[in-house]
């Protein structure tokens, strides 16, 4: 089985490594580099040219989860099943937009020296914040992509309309997997997903970085979801 995977902000192919190992031969996770476009809409249009022009199994993590949702709503005929990790496909809150604008302003005036260790740790659940392998991996992925990618991803996501309200109209199966300790996802948004008809919701004991923190749990969920009739 082949599953096409959209990563999150400042994440590269290493995001899927632990989960791929746990999956073994059941499935191949195809990492798709997020297009360097100015808006989310143009990123979706670029993905339409990159992804196979046939029904596929798609999943996305964080920013990639939003893009996977938006792609699936725009091109439902090209989706078999959709899974979203660590994202709610909801609109961007004013507070989140302001945080991104502050970050962009800081980078434009001070430059970017990489994600601070404290911030990398905060993306993990409490029991994983002392895991040096995971903290270092987050920092290494960020360093490999660098300032241009960070600026593009922050700018393109300043305008993020709600997509969740359209997912209850699709005919393919949809599953959201979220971390119980994810400080980047609001309880209100999770409740909104749970109240959306036709969407399966699973909660994992972790923070935001679900594929790194719970690869075995995630591999079991992926196997169950994508092999269902």
From TrEMBL:
Q: By its UniProt entry, which InterPro entries does this protein fall under?
A: AB_hydrolase_fold (IPR029058), AB_hydrolase_sf (IPR050266), Hydrolase_4 (IPR022742)
Write down the SUPFAM superfamilies for this protein, in alphabetical order.
alpha/beta-Hydrolases
Q: Which residues form the Serine aminopeptidase S33 domain?
A: 12-199
Q: Which Pfam families match?
A: Hydrolase_4 (PF12146)
User: Which PANTHER family does the protein's record reference?
Assistant: MONOACYLGLYCEROL LIPASE
* Protein name (record): Pimeloyl-ACP methyl ester carboxylesterase
